[in-house]
Design brief:
Layout: E1 2-3, E2 15-25, E3 50-56, H1 62-70, H2 74-83, E4 88-96, E5 99-106, E6 116-117, H3 134-140, E7 156-162, H4 172-180, H5 185-188, H6 192-199, H7 201-204, E8 239-245, E9 263-272, E10 284-292, E11 301-311, E12 314-321, E13 332-337, E14 348-351, H8 352-355, E15 356-359, E16 364-369, E17 380-386, E18 391-395, H9 403-414
Parallel strand pairs: 2-3
Antiparallel strand pairs: 1-6, 2-10, 3-5, 4-5, 7-8, 9-10, 11-12, 12-16, 13-14, 13-17, 15-16, 17-18
């Protein structure tokens, strides 16, 4: 997945985003009852900005795939049920047979997440990944529409999932004894990813936190016991989260004019979650702080819900835009209830080009019918969607629609015709 922006860094002020990454091979299981621990929802001091969730081995039978095409799959629905009331909106959804990628962001970040693009690369039956697929994935993951076509040219790459790395050489008894005694470091040197990095310079560019948690595979379902079947598979860290930062110039005393790095990534947490036992894998999460110079400081479009007013059966919406914003006849404004799940979860919408009734350098107005808007005390949001940028470029603060709008409309409809 790639997200780029067409603006240069603006000033020296730095922003910090908290990104929570989840990887879980769910082995065709349905969602559990509670995901609070997985999503770090129990700690009010851990405010997240973005969730990136990757699931593997989802139920991919023919009937299930057809059902998921017509409706949201159970896992996507469950994550939206949990995160939407917390002001997160799903901004990306990629399903490829048994694989699922979901990205959620706090709604106030939407105007600054632009030109979102996705690309998937099949790697075999149900997308099962092997190390030999690494070069093919890097070759195939190209984003031809933009100025940064190759995945390795991006500032930040997050690489995560069930990578199927095992522990070599050590016997089952030694591995289990090391786990029981929490001597995880005794196993690191024989981890296949660690071994592969010694022979592959590109792999070495990907960083990972310390494996200070038990191997995440293979467990008996509905338990925390490693495999007790006849096969007695050797435990392994198959589920991993890695990242790669693009090399940046470093400011040196001899070159004071050389810019310092304008982004950095720090790992705050890298753990497994033993409490979840629906699968033979345990989920793994990584929490990061991304510090960066923002590429823009104000949205391209500013919605002005405080200036709402009605005219006959329509509600007028006012907004302004920056001088460099290039609009399109296919831009639209959506009206949403607070707690919206995704960008298509609107109550109503209007095409900007067809419904604009006034225009000036500083203020524009469009009208939207109130006939389809429910009479409610709920709060609403307005979002401006840019067709050129394929993203939301403006979002209002939450507001209520005064009930008098609907009362006035009812009176107008009841007025006798002369």
């Amino acid at each position: 997945m790639a997200s780029e922006n067409q603006w240069k860094p603006n000033g020296t002020k730095r922003n910090t985003l908290s990104i929570h990454v989840v990887t879980w091979n769910v082995a065709s299981a349905a969602p559990p009852l509670d995901l609070s621990d997985l999503l770090h929802l129990n700690n009010p001091n851990q405010n997240k900005d973005i969730y990136v969730i990757g699931l593997q081995e989802m139920n991919s039978g023919i009937i299930r795939l057809l059902s998921d095409t017509a409706f949201e799959d159970p896992w996507s629905s469950f994550f939206m049920d949990v995160l939407s009331p917390l002001s997160f909106i799903k901004i990306s959804h990629v399903r490829m047979q048994g694989l699922l990628l979901l990205v959620f962001a706090k709604y106030q970040h939407l105007p600054f997440i632009q030109i979102l693009s996705t690309k998937s690369t099949p790697t075999g039956l149900y997308g099962y990944w092997r190390l030999e697929h690494f070069d093919r994935i890097l070759e195939m993951q190209n984003f031809k529409r933009y100025d940064i076509p190759n995945i390795l040219d991006h500032d930040l790459i997050l690489w995560f999932g069930d990578m199927n790395f095992r522990i070599e050489d050590f016997g089952l008894h030694f591995v289990r004894e090391s786990i029981t005694n929490q001597h995880y470091s005794d196993l690191w040197e024989k981890d296949q990813l660690s071994i592969a990095k010694k022979h592959d310079s590109l792999l070495r560019e990907f960083q990972e936190g310390p494996l200070n948690f038990p191997p995440t595979y293979k467990f008996d379902r509905n338990s925390n016991n490693y495999d007790t079947s006849e096969k007695k598979r050797k435990p392994a860290w198959t589920d991993r989260i890695l990242w790669r930062l693009k090399r940046q110039p470093k400011a040196k005393p001899l070159n004071p004019n050389l810019p310092a790095p304008y982004f950095s990534l720090s790992l705050k947490s890298y753990i497994s979650h033993m409490m979840y036992d629906i699968s033979d894998h345990k989920p793994v999460t990584g929490t990061f702080d991304l510090e960066f110079n923002p590429l823009m400081s104000v949205p391209l479009v500013t919605m002005l819900p405080e200036s709402l007013w009605t005219m006959e059966n329509d509600m007028l919406i006012s907004y302004s835009s920056t001088p460099d914003f290039l609009s399109s006849p296919w831009d639209w404004i959506g009206l949403y209830k607070v707690g919206m799940r995704h960008i298509n979860d609107y109550v109503s919408y209007v095409w900007v080009g067809d419904n604009q009734i006034s225009f000036s350098d500083n203020l524009k107005q469009v009208y939207i019918s109130i006939n389809n808007i429910p009479e409610t005390e709920d709060q609403f949001l307005l979002c401006y969607y840019s067709n050129n940028l394929n993203s939301v470029v403006g979002i209002s603060k939450p507001f209520k629609i005064p009930l008098r709008f609907f009362l006035d409309n009812s009176l107008n409809e009841a007025k006798p015709q002369i």
